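FW: tagging you since you asked about this chain on Friday. Here's the raw sequence from the shared folder, copied in full. Didn't touch anything.
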Amino acid sequence: MAVYFDHRVQTVAGSQVDIAWHDTQLLLAVATRTEGGGGTVQLYNEEGEELENACVQRSCGSSSLSWHPLKPIFASGWESGQVLVWNDESKEVHEAPNLHKSEVCLITWNDRGTRIVTADKAGLIIVWKADTKGRINPTPVCQHENQQKPRQCIFKPTPQDNSESEIAALARAAVRGDERALDMFSWRKELIKSSKTNAGDGFSCYIAGADGDVIYIDEKGNVFNMHKCEEPVKKLLYNEHRNILVIITDSLMLSQHTVMSDGKLQETMKVKLSGKPTDTDCAIVWAGKGLLATASGDCTVRMWDLDKDDNFVLALDPQSGFETGECVNCVSYCKNKEILAGGTDRGRVAFWKYSPNRGLMARKQESETKWKLQKASNLEGNILQIKWGTKKNLLATNTINLVTVLNEQLMSGHMKDEICVVQTGPNTLSVDMFANKTHHNVNTDIHVKGVYVSKEHMVIWNGRKAVVYEIGQQAIRASGTFSTESSVVCLYEQNVYTTEPGKIQVRTFQGTVKQLISLNDDDGEPVTMEICNKCLVVATSSGFVKVYDISRREAKLTCSKNFAEIIPELKIIKSAKANSTGTRVSLIVEKTDGTPDSKLYIWDVDMDSIQYFDFATGQGDQDDVLLTNNEDMNDVERGRLEAAQDVAMRYPSKFYWDPMEPKLIVCEAVLAPDNENAAQTKKKKISTLNNLPPEVMVVSLFTTLDFGVMLQGGIPLHSGYSSMLGAGIPYLYFVKKPGEKHDEDADTLAFDSPSSRKVMRDFVGLEDSDKNSRDGMMNFSFYLTIGNMDEAFKAIKLIKSESVWENMATMCVKTRRLDVAKVCLGNMGHARGARALREAEKEPELDARVAMLAIQLGLLEDAERLYKNCGRYDLLNQFYQASGQWAKAMETAELHDRIHLRTTYYNYAKHLESKGDMNGAIPNYEKSDTHRFEVPRMLFDEPQALKAYIMKTKDKSLKKWWAQYMESTSEMETALQFYEMAQDYLSLVRVYCYCNNLEKASEIASQTGDRAACYHLARQYENAEDYKSSIHFFTRAQAYSQAIRLCKENNMEDQLMNLALMSNSADMIDAAQYYESSPQTMDKAVMLYHKGGHFSKALELAFDTQQFAALQLIAEDLDEKTDPMLLNRCADFFMEHGQYDKAVDLLVVAKKFTEALDLCMQQGVNITEKLAEKMTISKDDPNNDLRNKLLERVADICFQQGSYHLATKKYTQAGNKAKAMKALLKSGDTEKIIFFAGVSRQKEIYVMAANYLQSLDWRKDPEIMKNIIGFYTRGRALDSLSGFYDACAQVEIDEYQNYDKALGALSEAYKCLSKAKLKNASQQEEKLAALKHRINLVKKFVQARRVYDEDPEEAMKQCQVLLEEQDLDSAVRVGDVYGMMIEHYARQETYKKAYACMEEMRSRIPTVNMAFYVNMRTIEAIHRSLDIPLGRGMGAEKKDEDDGDEVEEEVQEEYDDDNGYC
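HL: got it, structure written out here
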């Protein structure tokens, strides 16, 4: 709960014409018109105090005011046309060039503070540049003479990004040595710099004026007219998230315009706002995304949701402190607080807090109910101007005569010894003494910022002054006042404890210092202080917690601990308190990242040990129950687990030790913001308002040395409370929310008292009991928490009160101890509850069983929560129905229990019917889909209401029922009307036939084609002996058997055939038998027998009557079920007539595969894949040999017919893979050959595939080369592989002159051949010798080439020796050797030797093409130098094959480029 402190601003004498807050700095600028006609602009701080040397004065008045968006710099326009800029950092005034000659009425900064727009009443608009100190560049960016007085200016906002933070993070990583971050830093910096340049830095703006013109000034200073309004423009607003400019005129005509990239405006919507216009600029503001708030001088604030096209009003409420007829003049919205503030004409400020419901219910919530009106702040005068500002979200109001600053403060409160003190206003307090039921209201002379109470005294302070009061039963009187700047004050007996930097003062009530408690430099400054019995607990800024004994005359330090060493992320200690004996100190802290720590730390002073309870998990440091659901858990462990889950994902905000029980601590736990969404998506939570986890819970804990910190229980904070105030057995103390529904179980001393107390759930019924009873209940609760049932029952054995047993049973709902609950129910005599609990034991979920206990004890909220936790929405639905919560029941059924959705609607309808709400019951009967019976039953005694319902409903069955009812009462016309509305054509035809109106019945049956209606009408025509019409309608009804019957009875053979063909097989055979009796209709009989599936009879008749055409049609439909004799007969018939393919088909159907194959061979019948599959015997056939022989024969025929793929398939099925490969080789399908060889895994097939692949152009396809090598290797055909490597070597020599690779290939060939096992060993030896000789020759040539680079002469000698070798051509081309020598001599310019080599080469190879071995330029150079003309054979002629450079292809083979073939 918060209160607003008002600080009156000590302004200069005169009229305050304008106020303006800085966006972030704690600076308020107030423009004042003095009595002498001059003007000032003075700066003030957050408390309204005037800042020294922060004033701008002129002889004329200030007419406009605007703050720099980032720095403490403001610009002011004056009536003389001056534009002044005040820099509060340097305390300097900078004046812009005096270009304005009339009053400056408009002044606006852009988002980055680099440009400023000024405009005067004469219409002159100037755009200036400003430097970092706010100084204006003398040369304007642009000047524009306008014919209207400018009123509004708005800059296009610059897009928000995280560029600066990204650069900072990369810079830090780069400093740490991350090279990648360093590279990204440089790149990102340049990218951001470029993007900022392109973005234009938010320089463009829109300006509107009194003539309705809206102009656009781009970043270069160009001016464009963008829009023309019919009236003066009152307000310009920019909707950033939708990129829309909103224009509002003086008559409140609103138009929305989409802003294009070039600044052009496209109007999308135009609407007239209601209300009357006002003169103030604060009457129209944004109040959220796309939400517009307008104050029009009446008692409401009108809200317009432009995104959703919705509107609503916020009204003043007298219950919040407003008067009837009070009007709102101006409004302002604080985005950070989500508060809309409004100033009224009677000096009050209204605050509307945006507080929507959570979850799914927020969608159904009315817009106006999302805004909660707070208590009014009372000021003085007629508030004409109101504005939020600064980083502290301060509010300033202006009444022309008075400027006030409102600063929000959390209301202070404290409780001790059953005395509650709660702040109710800036200087008002409420004191409630529950011990003697006394309530007091206290008015103070200071703005209260803190309060502390003891048994007999109370102290308040404001950071400058402290006032001590004596609390009496009849009155509260001031006992002393003294000055102090302490932010924390405590009381103990006659002493007041205050803080100063580095020390704690012990004072009298009049402020006299009795003792100074000094702190070390390492300790830091005291930040929090609390007195618990006789212990003073002090926490310092350095993380120290110190405990002092104050029971004696002077405080004495008893122990100290540095928690900064224990909690690594500790930033500051928020609160530290000791228990009643001073043996344990608990504290909550804030982490270094500014977030609250989820742990409550407890320091055992005697043992100097630290324990904690983590609200993020709901468990203590010694808790042995993991937050994972384990099927092996017993009910006790599962209960502890689920209780932990109830309080998990939170952090402690407040905590209170019980003043008498040293092991009990009560905490206020708030849902962590980061985990709020996660909590909503937990499996056991559903997304509605009532099912979301409560934002605040009150959690009680037990802490002992042996068991650590254990969760005792937790309850949601009631919606009527804002916070917890304290705890003391048997009560919890709370601060109430004003205007909210209060807790009915709470105890409040006065209607207007903000504090109340509520009995702890464990102590209901023991409020007035003695200490022994309370101690027994406390021990019972403790032992129950740790699971010691024996001790728990011993603790309460002397308690005989039935209410106590009921209270303990209630505790069992929290602890989920059903075994204890049974005992409690027995002692209570609650037989019904005991039976319900036994029946609930069949439910597998513990929470479902506990929920039944909660229901029996009347704890409906707990039952609801438990059912949700365990996901038993079916039981939750039943619970809602039983408790009369039908809205929740239907919502639960719709979202989670859809299997019972219709049942829920039905039960709700029954409930409404029992209450007499027939109109409410009807739609629910409809939703349950039971309205066809239930609504007529319910309304049967009210025929007019029933008829009206029937007329209104669109349900055809109900209309049909009503028509039947009317027919039963002989109201045929009404019955016909409703039958027609129900589209019950059978009943219509039936009634018309009953009325002898067959013509109308025939018309309906013909138009609708309803089969039942046609059948009924056909029966009527048959009775009337109109057989033609009867047959027609029997046909329309698809009752062909009836139509056939009539045709046969009346000899209508012309229609019989068509009817039989449309009917089923039985009717076809019946008609065929009829036709068979006449020789003239045998063809029809054959056709019908065929169509009816009686093939044997059809064939018999066809053969008997020689109907060969029909025979062919019948043969196509024969299958293996047909009589084999008939199949043979048909086959013979087709063979006689030369239709061998059909004969083959029939023989295959007759399973005569051999005859069929013989016929295929003899007559050349092509075997298709379909036919081949028919001739394939199943694998399950026991005669496998016959199957394989048949498959091979089918494959042989397919092979002969050229169906190689089919032959391959059949050979494979027969298991003859060799023949299958031969067939596949015949097809030439390389891809399938490679695949088949790979899956067959037979040596013979590998070799066959490799031989085939070698016949292809393997030189240009590396994959084929790899497959050849692989297949020869797998097939162990090393001799063939050797030959392939030999071929590869020859290709390398002939096509690429690559002797290195050729040598590698020959080496591989030699290896393969040496490993091969040929039958003729001598022949193998000869081949190896020849191959080795070739390898030696190639080696010599390769060696000569390699030596050439180092010793060319040696290389030439080796070439000469090589030319003398016998059979050189078998390994090395002679031309390549000569070519190398010729090139060498040409380089040495010994052209004669080169020419001699050419001649020698020509003599050795008479038909040589010299250009094939020697470069043409070399040949030309030799001939030119020797003056010998080029002749044929020298390369001068055109080559036969190619003219141009050869293209060398790199073939991917299984060898290494460096090491040769491998």
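FW: Residues 378 and 858 are 45 Å apart (CA to CA).
HL: agreed, and Residues 190-200, 676-690, 1435-1462 have pLDDT under 50 and may be disordered.
FW: great, closing this out.
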